[in-house]
């Protein structure tokens, strides 16, 4: 092993003293983040790379500023791939990460991108190699042929690689050796001059079978949402009364403040009234959902699920990768919309629209369940989820461009399934939670401010009264108009259905009417947090067009649910 690392030890270092920027680049799911996190022993900070609008993760050590770029998907036009390539173009030192199981293919694809740059190569998944002694000899010869330092590692544990003889003894690869490879960086050639012949794919599982795979994949995608809602509701049931008791004196104190200020702080839609819902209900949902998705990603399940579902989604203009992002929206729409930077240009806008339409976020889903429980019809969640899923797919099919339905699957070879480390799961979860509080929370505060003032000046009641005649079109009582208005602004506005003022109206509604009211209020428009995020990610013009198109589709579907449900129920 040391030959491949030290044969270039003589000569001057290409890395100067001080903090040097090193761009870490590779294909998807090669273990870049885990490698650099273990190498530096730090958590990432998120920010834009110079010349781009896409966030990258940075890991800092005493000597280097490692820029962990998004995984490269060759042959695609994703914004994340363009960002990774742009980062390579603007930096001199590159840490190229390849997989031991397909090193020849990875080098053939990636060397042209880093040609002329200086750096080193890290070969991950070394623990999966069946014959490490023979493979190591191949890597030593490859390193000499390329003229670039090359280090094989297990990215989940950068201090360990497989032993030559397969016994319990382990060769050690510590941080100093990896750093030494960067210090001894050499110029990358434009192509590989020697093939190692090391190539093998992971074994197939039930997820990969054409008959069972789609059903297992769908169940796995629904599991995080079900678990998040279940545990979040259980936690909220314990915490909500306690928080309300603690905040009651503060809410009563706001009654002595000037009218508008009292409304903003302690009114029905004020910070002290709606804030606890954010932390007590939405917070646990986001945390649990993010942890589940992190486990899926770091274990390799996401890649398997993507490939399994892709053939069945092409007809609606989405890919398997896109569906994963729509499901992410059940935790929080904001990071889900942001993650569409990894979608192809031909499917990104359809994916964003599907998130805004059908991803019942951590506000909407608990509020929906609370309404169903209030009318003692918890079973309505089953037709609700079925209708929401079906109409979202139909909506995507209607708005998807024709060429999107023939898009190839933008993914790499089948991923290994392995137990993720808790550190890697925490890093992924932390990024999602950080995105929620950094991007969604400020908008939430602004919406609370606007809604409180509209309520204080009576404008919400006026809007609800003006729209109440329209509710008859959907076979709904006029009193539900205000719920639809508030649900369009904030998804937890659905809870108004179970308020004291509408409790009698709700109890008199049929199952079809309850289902229609909840669906219309939740789907008529994306919440303002989502709309603002879409405007930032794509454009204000597209966000406006998306909202108008969604309103028309939601109205049409609600008509079918309202009058069709009256026949069924």
Protein architecture, described:
By secondary structure, this protein is α/β, with parallel strands linked by helices. It has two domains: 2-187, Rossmann fold; 213-407 and 421-568, no CATH class. Helix content is 57%, strand content 8%. It has helices spanning 2-6, 32-40, 79-89, 103-114, 132-146, 175-183, 213-254, 259-266, 271-299, 301-313, 320-328, 333-339, 345-358, 364-374, 381-399, 422-456, 459-467, 481-489, 503-508, 511-523, 528-537, 540-568; strands spanning 20-26, 45-48, 55-60, 64-68, 93-99, 118-124, 150-152, 160-161, 171-172, 186-187. The strands form two sheets. Strands 1, 2, 3, 4, 5, 6, 7 and 10 form an eight-stranded mixed sheet that branches. A two-stranded antiparallel ribbon has the order 8-9. Strand 2 (45-48) and strand 3 form a beta hairpin. The radius of gyration is 27 Å and the shape is elongated. The chain starts with a helix and ends with a helix. The model is unreliable at 1-17, 48-53 and 160-172 (pLDDT under 50).
Topology diagram in text:
Elements: H1 2-6, E1 20-26, H2 32-40, E2 45-48, E3 55-60, E4 64-68, H3 79-89, E5 93-99, H4 103-114, E6 118-124, H5 132-146, E7 150-152, E8 160-161, E9 171-172, H6 175-183, E10 186-187, H7 213-254, H8 259-266, H9 271-299, H10 301-313, H11 320-328, H12 333-339, H13 345-358, H14 364-374, H15 381-399, H16 422-456, H17 459-467, H18 481-489, H19 503-508, H20 511-523, H21 528-537, H22 540-568
Parallel strand pairs: 1-4, 1-5, 5-6, 6-7
Antiparallel strand pairs: 2-3, 3-4, 6-10, 8-9
